[in-house]
Amino acid sequence: MESVSPILIWFLLGVFFFVTELVLPSFILFFLGIGAWCTASVLALTDVSLTVQMVIFLISSLVTLISLRSWLRSVFIGDSSKEDDSVNVDSTPSTGIVTEAIMPPGHGRVQYGGSFWQAIADEPIPVDTVVQILERKNLIVQVRPLHAEEAA
Description:
This is Membrane protein implicated in regulation of membrane protease activity. By secondary structure, the chain is of the alpha+beta class. The chain is built from four helices and six strands; from the N terminus they run H-H-H-E-E-E-E-E-E-H.
């Protein structure tokens, strides 16, 4: 019986880690797969002992984990914001135009920054009124009517 090549074993171990990462996403097994493939690459170039293979696997897995994990996490998961949910949209006063009348306590719609936003206000505001954007909570903006003397 012929023995199986260590290169093939490390390569298949890497494939196993990648497939397992797809099934159980922990974003750690991916780096073990890279480490296994690095070990297979080294074995393709030179013959080393099992102890050296394990060291190569460990070091390459840790180096890729430390250097790439935070960057890849921000790519796939996105950056999280530690800011409060209620933040000012801009530090400078911003304006929009009411496209659907706002009748408290209900919502209306405002065109602002090239997009349409659900809007709330403390007073009724008719369509085509210029409003000042006060704050944003998730996808709803708080507005107030902008009077003629303020627009100038």
